């Protein structure tokens, strides 16, 4: 099937806008491929260094340049649950490569930080910039030019976007992304949220809070709510960078290991040394990117990807905008309800039919481009499947179920949870912003209330504890943008505002910071751009100004005369406390160079 006319029109708009940059990009990767990627161009001294640690038989094979060599980029560490399972993956990949007649080497490691650990801490101000560090670290690993293809072991918030930027920068190499899978289900997410709110109100202590959190985040694997990490996995599959059905299989299971071995063999099968050469830079095109955005909307995915997708596409010479994302939201219905958009977690989503069911529904409705290239071959239809373990330990695939296993979690195109996607772009005299509407009840999507202006989430917390917030208001948290302090996620605000909303108050958030995929039931206009430090209107709002946030109509306004706003000055506040400690001094250059949120927030320049 071909994509619907409105989807194709947006895709064509992106294609035309990107024509020059895409042509330049494709010429570059074609030149890289034609020069002889890998060992053929290395001197004897170069090559000897490159395979010094290999077994004798591997040295012989690599010296002859007759077998494909697979580079492994890994985000393994054993402090973070999502990345701990990757400890055993390199050995599985090497064994699979040997069985396929190839060789695999760990090309390099990349840092992997967890926003869940750094929430509300100074280290959170490094989080967004870690994406670009990951891209650069990957480039260093691949710079040795020893490889015919690469596999990427990454799963969480900034790791996958950083790896994707690097993979597309080395676009002449085939690339397969290998997930580790979500942890098994712990306590219900709504119970975790309930205990958090009780703690914020002083009704339970730290011991009770820690017990609830530990029962939620309890084992190896990705957190099970539908935040940025699991949105990453959806994106990699719907964009064709995973093997079909790979995203949400739990770690340390026979099927997970079988999928990992299969992915390694597939990466070796699509090198330039075979007949199915699939360089990732040509494989990922405007249609693939649109498919990713549609998937994000259909699942109510992470707001972070309104930043990351722009940066990822830019790495392939493709220019997308928030307007493209907004227009695709209008065309895409919400088909999944996974916490915080519902009570279920990703394990429930997977059991209900998962991505195979979702992809089939979107394909049949003409909302996805079926005629794309993937690591699996031609077309996206082979991804409308469920992966299972075969009798011999290999992966087998069956057509996705025709009926959802749980219609409260996963529904059909004919009966969507809402007619439009889970994300919207807001525009008005404050600037542009993103809001996640899929978890916000319709009656709470229009808020008009006086502003309470603060310069940190801690200031809001202090005001809450002092009993100063028992009223209707819009919290304006400014100086949280990329240039000010690295644009941290502001999750401390979620619980406080949720408590006040439950008390019957009309509350909302407006900030130039981030909230991520965990943005919940409180209307939150985030990623406001221009940010306060760049002179944005968000920095000119004063206490008591009336703010009108209308999520359904896509508007964000401060109800003050334009003449008055024009003469107001953005306060000159002291940001020096954000510039030192926990490594923040090392990122001064990033804060100076970073692009705006709507341009991808990249330290590599404006997208």
From TrEMBL:
PROSITE patterns: ILVD_EDD_1, ILVD_EDD_2. Residues 408-601 form the Dihydroxy-acid/6-phosphogluconate dehydratase C-terminal domain. It comes from the Bacteria. Keywords: 4Fe-4S, Carbohydrate metabolism, Gluconate utilization, Iron, Iron-sulfur, Lyase, Metal-binding. GO terms for molecular function: 4 iron, 4 sulfur cluster binding; metal ion binding; phosphogluconate dehydratase activity. The keyword 4Fe-4S applies. [4Fe-4S] cluster binds at residues 156, 223. Binds 1 [4Fe-4S] cluster. One of its GO terms (cellular component) is cytosol. The keyword Acetylation does not apply. SUPFAM superfamilies: IlvD/EDD N-terminal domain-like (SSF143975), LeuD/IlvD-like (SSF52016). It catalyses: 6-phospho-D-gluconate = 2-dehydro-3-deoxy-6-phospho-D-gluconate + H2O. Belongs to the IlvD/Edd family. This is Phosphogluconate dehydratase. It comes from Mesorhizobium alhagi CCNWXJ12-2.
